[in-house]
């Protein structure tokens, strides 16, 4: 997995490239939390993330909880496979998905 972060005007956009799993979830969590100062909007671009495990879901949940205190979070460009995981786990109920 690789992440690309763009921070501008209080918005942090994080593009996730590759699978989000037990090995890569801590890496994503650290990368995002290291850049959250001054961020009011977090955007997760999952257009190049074909899979997430439960560890990845846990990281997404931690990010959502952090942003509930600071501002907003949205998830964009979710592939069908990951969207199905979000729906089966109930994540689609509380995530803002565009």
Describe the protein's architecture and organization:
There is one protein chain. The protein is α/β, with parallel strands linked by helices and 98 residues long. Helix content is 41%, strand content 28%. A four-stranded mixed β-sheet has the order 1-2-3-4, with helices on one face. It is globular, with a radius of gyration of 12 Å.
Rg over CA atoms: 12 Å
Give me the CATH superfamily.
Answer: STAS domain
CATH class: Alpha Beta
Strand count, sense and barrel status of the largest sheet are: 4 strands, mixed
Strands side by side in the biggest sheet: 1-2-3-4
Given as residue ranges, the uncertain stretches (5+ residues, pLDDT < 50) are none
Question: Which architecture would the CATH scheme give at its second level?
Answer: 2-Layer Sandwich
Query: What percent of residues are in strands?
Result: 25-35%
Question: Can you tell me the number of structural domains?
Answer: 1
What is the helix tally?
A: 4
Look at the structure and give the mean pLDDT: 97
- Provide the helix percentage: 40-55%
Oligomer: single chain
Shape: globular
Helix-strand topology string: EEHEHEHH
Distance between the termini: 22 Å
């Amino acid at each position: 997995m690789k992440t690309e972060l763009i921070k501008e005007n209080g918005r942090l956009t994080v593009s996730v490239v590759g699978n989000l799993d037990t090995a890569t979830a801590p890496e994503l969590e650290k990368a995002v939390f290291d850049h959250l100062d001054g961020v009011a909007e977090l955007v997760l671009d999952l257009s190049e993330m074909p899979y997430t495990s439960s560890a990845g879901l846990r990281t997404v949940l931690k990010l959502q909880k952090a942003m509930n205190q600071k501002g907003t979070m949205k998830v964009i460009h979710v592939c069908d496979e990951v969207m199905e995981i979000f729906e089966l786990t109930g994540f689609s109920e509380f995530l803002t998905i565009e």
